[in-house]
Design goal:
Among the domains are: 172 residues, P-loop containing nucleotide triphosphate hydrolases (Rossmann fold, 3-Layer(aba) Sandwich), CATH 3.40.50.300; 55 residues, no CATH class; 85 residues, Winged helix-like DNA-binding domain superfamily/Winged helix DNA-binding domain (Arc Repressor Mutant, subunit A), CATH 1.10.10; 99 residues, Winged helix-like DNA-binding domain superfamily/Winged helix DNA-binding domain (Arc Repressor Mutant, subunit A), CATH 1.10.10.10; 132 residues, Serine Threonine Protein Phosphatase 5, Tetratricopeptide repeat (Alpha Horseshoe). 65% of the residues lie in helices and 7% in strands. InterPro entries: AAA_22, AfsR-DnrI-RedD_regulator, P-loop_NTPase, Sig_transdc_resp-reg_C-effctor, TPR-like_helical_dom_sf, WH-like_DNA-bd_sf.
Amino acid sequence: MTAPAPRNSLLLRTDALEQCRYLDRSHIRVLSVTAQAGSGKTVLISQYDETSDTPFAWVTCSVRHADPRVLFEDVARTLEKSCPALESEAVLNIFEQPLSTDELIDLGVHRLREALEALDTPLTLVMDDAHRLLGHDAALRLIRRIQDDTPHSLRLIVISRLPLRLAGGALFAPGEQLVVDQSILALNREEIASLYCGVFGIPVSTKHIDRLFETTEGWVAALVLLRNTEDPTMLKSPAEVRAVGRYFDELTVSMDPDAARELLLAASLDAIVPDVLGDLLSPALLDWLTAMAANNLFVRFGVESGRTILRLHHLFQAHLAEKGGAAVPAEERRAYLARCGAAFLNAGEVSIGLDYLVAAGAWVEVEGALKAHGLAMVADNLHWTLLNLLDAVPGPVLAASGWMTLVHGIVLLNVRPKDSADSLRRAIDLLREEGDPVGELIATAMLNTCNVMILGRFGRRANLVRRAVELFEPMKDRLPSPLIKLVAQSLSLGYAYLESDLPMAGRYYELALAHTEGKKADTDPELLLCRLLLLVLGGDVNGALDALSPFFPLSNDTMISPTVRYWLDIVQANYLLMAGDIAGYRHMRACIGTKWGDKPDRSFIAVFLVVWDLDRLMTEGRYAEAHALAAGFDAAHPETLPHMRSQILHYRMLAAAHLGKREEALRVMRAALRQRAIGGGIWFSLLTRSLVGAALSLLGETRAAERVFHACLKGYRDRDIVHPHTVYAYRAAMRFGTGRDQEALRDLGALLGLMRRRRVPHFFGWSPRIMERLLCRAVRDNVEKRYALDLARDRLGLDILDDGTPVPLLRIECAATLRLSLGPVSLSEDELSPMWRKVLRLLGESPRRVLGVEALQEELWPGSSPEKTRSKFDTMLSRLRARIGAVFGEDARQRYLQLHGQKLYLRHCAIDLHQALRYAGEGLEHAARDRYWQAQTAFTHMRGRLGAAYEQPAAWAAGQEAREVIIRALVAWSALLVRCNAPRQALEVVDKALALDPINDTAQRRRYDLLASLKRTAEAWKSIKRYRTALAEEGFDEQEIAQAIDNIFVS
């Protein structure tokens, strides 16, 4: 709203204004003006506005502003009016996505801060009538955040009748605000004399002034109302003066009776809007109000959303409302409010219209308005507006209305998700009774989504899906596209989670996709969830990673809902784990901790991370740690939803079985099955039962395990679910252990063949102890031998000999400092002679890890004949082998350095440089194909394999060819991070590239652009100077250097 009309006809409050102007000179950014109604608070700040060089933006708070969404939009739009360079639409476009209250406040203030920082223009935001927000903590939190998180160029003035309090304490502490209170606002004798003699033109005596001061205590409203009182003896006491009703009556005594009665009705309105009210506002009353506003007599004039607004002063409005309560029948007042509500609805002011309809008790009209506008209001994040409206509806009325109950449930789904299911269930019953199939369909779809996504309730809920299909199919061609999309998504989730019917889930996913607007299909997280489920439940984890990849930029976009970004991160972590990329999962898990702080502990989806941590620990053979984590979490969180608790329990059961804790394993097994029976979901039920079979096989319960495995395989076949890996693995191990080798080999072949075809080297319940035995048998018996060898290297760090003997891989770091390690034992560069180091580096950098003996002799003893140096070579090799054997065991002496004919081989080893180059190549390929997340993962692995060579590029010790590949990968990685909204990470990566190649022009241009975008101008200029120096040191002449520098600025 604009500032109140200029008050040049009123007394200029010189002393009080001086108190206000301390805000201009102070580091404090908040001015609180707190006093009773009628104290001249708004007039004072309007005078401050008129005399200030800083633009003022005014928001007059009303009941609508209890919704932080409404309050923030009004703040942004009024700031734009005061400073047109601030584009409010660019600030408000964050509301085009579903947001929780906290997210709305966080993102809104973040975007506002960016807009204000870009302007660097002093502005003053005035929150008038802020006391109307008391009790509405979300709105008060927004005001607090604006003060905390916006630049000092924005100052805040809060005008309120009462001190503002939040969470039991003051909204602003004493040291955070300057205060203008009743004592400053009260007029002194000199100001009373000036008011009466100078403004009102009423000559008064000193005695009269003294009496006015004593009886009014400088209260402005009373002084204005008493200006026609000629006899000071009539002024008896301050208490009597405060009974101002009779003075207000004097203002209306000459009004037309019809207009006076209409005024009593209009006092029920928050604001009088002539353009909206139309015939409901008579010309006589409009003229009277306009005259009162022109004379500054308890009517305020303003402009809001392009419309003239008239507001009655609070004291005047309260008096009229009290008087109207006695003079106007309640039925007449309700009818008037209902007509006003309809007028505002017709004018597009839906929230205001609903307010008046609720106040009128026009429940049929309220229900109709919610049916017409409720879903759109939810989509516009007006959650608190709707919740406050519905809270004002009497309980019996709400409980009897299908659409009111439906909207209430949907709002709770956004505000308090776990409390929404009861309302949605009631809405289904009511709407069915009312014969409203569209409403029942919406309620059914929303409850299904709530059960799947929020409550994790899958058991016996398939009837919701079937009922939704019965309702949806006959009418789907007549429904609007947004509603078709909403229902189709819900049905896709339902068929996938509840019934594991992937063809039906896919059909409804395609329907939802067809009804999604253009480009939104590429960035819609709800659609993504449906697609990911179809891919993962269908066994295509790599396809899921491909589908997730385009969303990597969104996961770093600070203007996207934090819940969506957090969800994208943890899903990526999950799929890395499911793909068998344990190192990638660990890195992503660490990034989640760094990026989100304690959000994982506060989010209802955080328990997924605990489940995946358990799977990782099991995969690494850390059974005792997995057992402790599961037992500790279950004890600390007994309220965990059955769907997730069953998974915590089945990992605890399996860990206990691996540790030989028989009684505990059996006890927890029963609990896991009970929780899964409650949670439901066919896919998850089969998973839990598969792990039950695994635990029974470990405990020696062979017959019981066989029965469970058989039932699981039948369930997988019946549903065409391709996830029987756990059954095949543990049953094969059990059968090998009981001498049923042929059956075991068939299971082993089925397991490895399925993993190879699906390109997924992982399954739930993976155990290195079990898999080492199985893979050794696979190699020995030639069962998927090539795949078994690759799986053993990648997942277990083993080579397997043809006879099935496992050989642990020797880890060799040679990109920087040389280091050999086998498990916890290592051999550092300092413990190796220079000649040994050279041999190991040459072999390590060789693509096939093999070199001819003569070539090695020439490298070690250049210019000497091979015949003369052969004995030296043999002695050197013998001593090196002896050293390796002494550190890593006698078996290692001949195992890793093998001499065949005239060639020396480095065998059974994993070399950091080779792995880093492999990942660099993968990352470059993924980046070229815009596969963002896959490229990010590959480059991250490259970084991990380089180790010290990445963290300290000066330590680089590998050859120039490898260096160039890594530089190219780093430059591509930095470009990827720029495109994916991660400029700070991009700067870190490009710095590593420049440490290896200081004159790389692409990297230099990118570094300059990044520093400029991050507003680190001084560093950007220093970067240019360093580039100039590096070019000069490389021998470039001044003209070439100037051209190179110009290219940076041109780019």
